[in-house]
């Protein structure tokens, strides 16, 4: 590539927007990335359990899958500590984690498509599902931390409402579409379709810097911002101390208790309802996923209206 072409490419990179530039960009970025997260969750919390049930797997097998893919989400406390402690600062405090998680998720979906396990190959399905879930959990932690760090406080309520709406739309649409491919096409086509759908909103993290002047990719020009350098902890103890200080208060402990209560009911629902719909009601994957999607859309719309 000539020097003039290199200069033009660098100039193009420098003109790309940053998350801190304006409120509309922050709103769009958060919504798109939560849409991508919803697509992934629609796959492994709705579509695959329904596919297992339709193909004769018992509730115990479906429950094992749901438990395995839920595990990374129960470890978000530790994931958050790692994301806070380690960062490639020239790309911002959290953006490198976002790009890495999304890249790994897309690669895993393609590998899942190539492997195309049978419904009876539960161990293989659990391994792939857990990897996908872990990458989605890392994205969730990194995105939430980035939004809290870089979004003005007066915008947080609105952006949270839009993100919930995006996630609900992703869950509903992703679950229904993937279930359609599982029922009428093939497992490989379902995974490839999910990877393609996920890649579209994921470009928001790839093309948008946290702050102006930072690197777009590790090999591009750019530098660490003073804000990122000053905010990054240099040891584990400050991270753990601040986390424990905030955690062991009345309100956080109450929220944790409510989350445990909600998670228990959600896990029971996600394990038993696909089996009931498929084996008792004789529903196919698409019908169950569509019904579940309607529920997600209703709850997402309610959250959007209340929060926004």
The oligomeric state is: single chain
Enter the CATH topology name. Growth Hormone, Chain: A
The residue ranges in which pLDDT falls below 50 over 5 or more consecutive positions are 1-12
CATH H-tier superfamily: MFS general substrate transporter like domains
The share of residues in helices is over 70%
Structural class: mainly alpha
Short overview:
80% of the residues lie in helices and 0% in strands. With 308 residues, it is an all-alpha fold.
Outline the structure in words.
The protein is mostly helical. The chain has a single domain, classed as Growth Hormone, Chain: A (Up-down Bundle), CATH 1.20.1250. It has twelve helices and no strands. It has helices at 3-15, 23-54, 59-74, 76-85, 95-115, 122-150, 153-184, 187-207, 226-231, 236-247, 250-280, 285-307. Helix 3 (59-74) packs parallel to helix 6 and helix 7 (153-184) runs antiparallel to helix 12. The termini are far apart. The relative contact order is 0.19. Residues 1-12 have low confidence and may be disordered.
Describe the secondary structure blueprint for this structure.
Elements: H1 3-15, H2 23-54, H3 59-74, H4 76-85, H5 95-115, H6 122-150, H7 153-184, H8 187-207, H9 226-231, H10 236-247, H11 250-280, H12 285-307
Helix pairs in contact: 2-3, 2-6, 2-7, 2-8, 2-11, 2-12, 3-6, 3-11, 4-6, 5-6, 5-8, 7-8, 7-12
């Amino acid at each position: 590539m000539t020097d003039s072409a290199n200069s033009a490419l660098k100039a193009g990179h420098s003109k790309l927007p940053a998350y801190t530039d304006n409120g509309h960009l922050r709103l769009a970025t958060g919504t798109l990335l939560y849409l991508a997260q919803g697509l992934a969750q629609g796959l492994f919390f709705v579509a695959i359990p329904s596919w297992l049930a339709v193909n004769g797997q018992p509730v115990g097998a479906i429950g094992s899958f749901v438990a395995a893919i839920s595990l990374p989400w129960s470890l978000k406390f530790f994931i958050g500590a790692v994301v806070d402690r380690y960062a490639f600062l020239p790309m911002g405090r959290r953006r490198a984690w976002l790009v890495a998680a999304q890249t790994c998720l897309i690669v895993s979906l393609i590998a899942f498509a190539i492997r195309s396990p049978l419904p009876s190959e539960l161990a293989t399905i659990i391994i792939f599902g857990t990897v996908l879930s872990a990458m989605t959990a890392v994205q969730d932690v990194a995105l939430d931390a980035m939004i809290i760090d870089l979004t003005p406080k007066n915008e947080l309520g609105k952006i949270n409402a839009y993100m919930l709406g995006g996630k609900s739309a992703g869950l509903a649409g992703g679950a229904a579409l993937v279930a359609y491919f599982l029922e009428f096409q093939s497992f490989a086509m379902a995974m490839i379709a999910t990877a393609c759908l996920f890649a579209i909103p994921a470009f928001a993290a790839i093309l948008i810097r946290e702050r102006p002047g930072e690197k777009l990719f590790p090999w591009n020009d750019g530098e660490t911002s003073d804000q990122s350098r000053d905010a990054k902890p240099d040891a584990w103890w400050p991270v753990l101390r601040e986390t424990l200080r905030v955690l062991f208060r009345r309100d956080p402990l109450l929220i944790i208790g409510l989350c445990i209560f909600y998670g228990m009911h959600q896990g029971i629902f996600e394990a038993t309802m696909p089996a009931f719909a498929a084996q008792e009601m004789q529903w196919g994957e698409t019908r169950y996923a569509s019904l579940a999607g309607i529920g997600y859309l209703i709850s997402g719309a309610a959250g959007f209206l209340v929060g926004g």
